[in-house]
């Protein structure tokens, strides 16, 4: 009998939280292995054998190694989705729509969030420039238009696109608030995802850790300036 898939992750990380959300949606239990990026654990020879790009998350499914959160979510949905394929439809047209939302997350949403939190965590930044907050908020517009066709990002059904994007959007919202008057569909979508039974354990807890860390560092450094 095969063992549980191993996920190398950091609970604060939005991409790692996307994988946790996907596994929870599938009812899949993972063997979680924490990786301390700040301590350089992702640069060890052992980890580099798993993922030469030395990023997290990384999934090791009994010898099948998958890196990048979006690819991991696709892999899990394909392998463990069972009779239903609603999280990642096998129909090529529907799947391309899900893929487009995933690429929007990795190409637009998440990079803009990184420009806010990583300078604080890793490079000693003492503030978040206003233009970076505005830049994140501009990405909300694309999601608002996607939601015009249904309650979820690809229409009527929850998919891995929603799970990946909510890990990013929930993080972004902590630093770049969503204007509910300007983005009512997006605001409603966030609440819809927050109501999922596994949202708190798979996303909110790690999100709270990240926000507490970043805002705590900002407050500490700003106090030292006065």
Sum up the structure in keywords.
single chain, 226 residues, alpha+beta, 8 helices, 59% helix, Thioredoxin-like_sf
Strand order of the largest sheet: 2-1-3-4
The fraction of residues in strands falls at: 5-15%
Tally of alpha and pi helices: 8
Kindly report the average pLDDT value. Answer: 94
Helix content: 55-70%
Extended strand count: 4
The low-pLDDT segments are: none
Structural category: alpha+beta
InterPro entries: Glutathione-S-Trfase_C-like (IPR010987), Glutathione-S-Trfase_C_sf (IPR036282), Glutathione_S-Trfase (IPR040079), Glutathione_S-Trfase_N (IPR004045), GST_C (IPR004046), Thioredoxin-like_sf (IPR036249)
Domain GST C-terminal: 91-226
Domain GST N-terminal: 3-84
GO biological process, one term: glutathione metabolic process
3D structure, described in words:
With 226 residues, the chain is α+β, with helices and mostly antiparallel strands. It has helices at 14-26, 45-50, 69-80, 92-123, 130-146, 160-175, 184-194, 199-224; strands spanning 6-9, 31-34, 58-61, 64-67. The chain has a four-stranded mixed beta sheet, covered by helices on one side. Strand 1 (6-9), helix 1 and strand 2 (31-34) form a beta-alpha-beta unit. The longest helix has 32 residues, at 92-123. The chain is globular. The mean pLDDT is 94.
């Amino acid at each position: 009998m095969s063992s549980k898939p191993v996920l190398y992750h950091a609970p604060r990380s939005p991409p790692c939280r996307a994988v946790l959300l996907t596994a929870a949606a599938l009812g899949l239990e993972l063997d979680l292995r924490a990786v301390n990026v700040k301590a350089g654990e992702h640069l060890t020879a052992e980890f580099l054998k798993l993922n030469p790009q030395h990023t997290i998350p990384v999934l090791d499914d009994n010898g099948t190694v998958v890196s990048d959160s979006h690819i991991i979510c696709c892999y899990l949905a394909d392998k463990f989705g069972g009779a239903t394929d609603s999280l990642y439809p096998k129909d090529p047209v529907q799947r391309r729509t899900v893929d487009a939302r995933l690429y929007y997350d990795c190409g637009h949403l998440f990079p803009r969030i990184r420009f806010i939190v990583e300078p604080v965590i890793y490079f000693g930044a003492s503030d978040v420039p206003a233009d970076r907050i505005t830049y994140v908020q501009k990405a909300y517009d694309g999601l608002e238009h996607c939601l015009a066709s249904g309650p979820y990002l690809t229409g009527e059904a929850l998919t891995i696109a929603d799970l990946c994007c909510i890990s990013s959007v929930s993080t972004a919202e902590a630093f770049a608030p969503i204007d509910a008057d300007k983005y009512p569909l997006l605001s409603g979508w966030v609440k819809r995802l927050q109501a999922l039974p596994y949202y708190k354990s798979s996303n909110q807890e790690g999100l709270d850790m990240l926000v507490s860390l970043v805002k705590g560092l900002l407050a500490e450094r700003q106090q030292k300036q006065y």
